[in-house]
Amino acid sequence: MKNLSGLYAITDNKLLPFEKFLDTIEQAIIGGVKIIQYRDKSLAHQRRFEQAQALNHLCKKYQVPLLINDDVVLAKKIGADGVHIGKDDTDLATARAILGDEAIIGVSCYNKLSLAEKASSARASYVAFGRFFKSHTKPEAVLCRVEILRKARQTLHCPIVAIGGITPDNGAALIKAGADCLAVIEGLFGQKEVTMTAQRYAALFDK
């Protein structure tokens, strides 16, 4: 099982203007980001390919894994480290067959421990729960109780990612409950001082 832990940053094209996209992510990596997920729900295929490819080069430079949200084909094409999939995306077995045994494949489990147990048994690299707090990016996302993290930590052997409204002020409780990674979007890329904010998140894992 891959040792995944730390600050997990998810890109957002509304928060990351095209001209500042790579520079801002590099600032976040310098601040302590350990995993990057490229997330772009637009239909601008060529832009997505070029942007993801450039981001992959940046992540390779810093030896930070790059995952692609939903798009197994794009991940394969650019040589990304893996993908993150949800309930309406490519299934885990298919993603694994396309990307290979070494790929990082994460699965959204929302607030369902049963989904996480199924994903873990099917060789998911990690499972993700959330949202835990009010989220600006996905305000409609189902709420997950911290107790789910505690139960998951007792029963699962794969890394656990927490997502949804996480800040440097509320993230420590999730790590204490069992989260290996804190996944953030607006809490990082919506802030003026990205490097400093990343450092605040990263410090939570040192306590």
How would you sum up this structure, described in words?
With 207 residues, the protein is α/β, with parallel strands linked by helices. 41% of the residues lie in helices and 18% in strands. The protein has nine helices and eight strands. It has helices at 21-31, 45-62, 72-78, 92-99, 113-121, 146-155, 171-177, 186-189, 194-204, and strands at residues 6-10, 33-38, 66-69, 82-85, 104-110, 126-129, 160-163, 181-184. The protein has an eight-stranded parallel barrel, surrounded by eight helices. The protein is globular, with a radius of gyration of 16 Å. The mean pLDDT is 95.
Percent of residues in beta strands: 15-25%
Question: What is the N-to-C order of secondary-structure elements (H for helix, E for strand)?
Answer: EHEHEHEHEHEHEHEHH
CATH superfamily: Aldolase class I
Named CATH topology: TIM Barrel
Based on CA atoms alone, the radius of gyration comes out at: 16 Å
Number of strands: 8
Largest β sheet strand count, sense and barrel closure: 8 strands, parallel, barrel
